[in-house]
Amino acid sequence: MTILYDSPIFGPVRSRRLGISLGINLMPPDGKVCTFDCIYCECGLNAERRPKLPRPTREEVAEALEKKLQEMAAEGQLPDVLTFAGNGEPTTHPHFADIIDDTIRLRDQYCPEAKVSVLSNATQLHRRDVFEALLRVDNNIQKLDTVDADFIRAVDRPTSPNYDVAKVVEQLKAFQGHVIIQTIWMRIDNSQLTIDNYPSNEQSTNVEQKSIINYQLSIINYKGATIRRWLSALKEIAPSQVMIYTIDRETPVKGLEKATPDELNRIRDLVIAEGIPCTASY
């Protein structure tokens, strides 16, 4: 069963990659708002999660965060990290940059050792306010599942027809190392992933979608050529770290399977061999 997160604050939860994480969800609590429509998303598919409630305001986020930090301080359990995540892409919030500033101020006041992290799909990096705000956070974590455009179209499914992974790589390079790249790796069960249960992308025609599905049935995203192109992009981006992981919860599309620890370790070691720190979460 896919899940939705409370808004604007959820948790704390224990993150596989970040420790004790207090979540900040800038999307409505009753639905999903995202510039990707990933077939593996734990929050479900966009069309099935249309919200009726508004996003929290800047003021509501700051008020709720301060209240929760006060409670955690009184209990003697402060978070390791304040993480922007939740029901969609946090950087699409119209006041994202201001909310980052509020969060840094509250972090400094209540839990100065905690890190501020943003989990993003890198679709809003063309916005100067977003880019500069991400330079101010401790962990600027940006998704780059692959540099294969067909794979992105089939699996990450950007909602904008103008999405261009080559431009995204250039924008990631502009951080000059102040970026962590996050990539999911998974297997695809061809016997389960079929046209009948593969969701329609609102930006695709029936013919295009069928072509994408047929392509998808023939690939696994950690084939050698795909990894080599991804590694090449990582060397250009020169991130401070790479986080690789696999499916952890139920996915909205059936036929997706976890990558094995051996497979993740092999990819992790390839990244480390290029001189880039890398962690693998199973």
In short:
34% of the residues lie in helices and 18% in strands.
Largest sheet: 8 strands, mixed
Low-pLDDT windows of residues: 210-219
Give the strand order of the largest sheet, numbering strands 1, 2, ... along the chain: 1-2-3-4-5-6-8-10
Structural class: alpha/beta
What is the share of helical residues?
Answer: 25-40%
% residues in beta strands: 15-25%
Query: What integer is the average pLDDT?
Result: 89
Rg, Å, rounded: 18 Å
Q: Any idea what the shape is? A: globular
Give the SSE string: EEHEHEHEHHEEHHEEHE
Distance between the termini: 20 Å
* Helical stretch tally: 8
- By DSSP, the count of extended strands is 10
Main attributes?
alpha/beta, 10 strands, 18% strand, 8 helices, two-stranded antiparallel ribbon, single chain, 282 residues, eight-stranded mixed sheet, globular
Explain the overall architecture.
With 282 residues, the chain is an alpha/beta fold. Helix content is 34%, strand content 18%. The chain has an eight-stranded mixed beta sheet. Strands 7-9 form a two-stranded antiparallel ribbon. Helix 1 runs parallel beside helix 2, helix 2 runs parallel beside helix 3 and helix 4 crosses helix 6. The chain is globular and about 50 Å long.
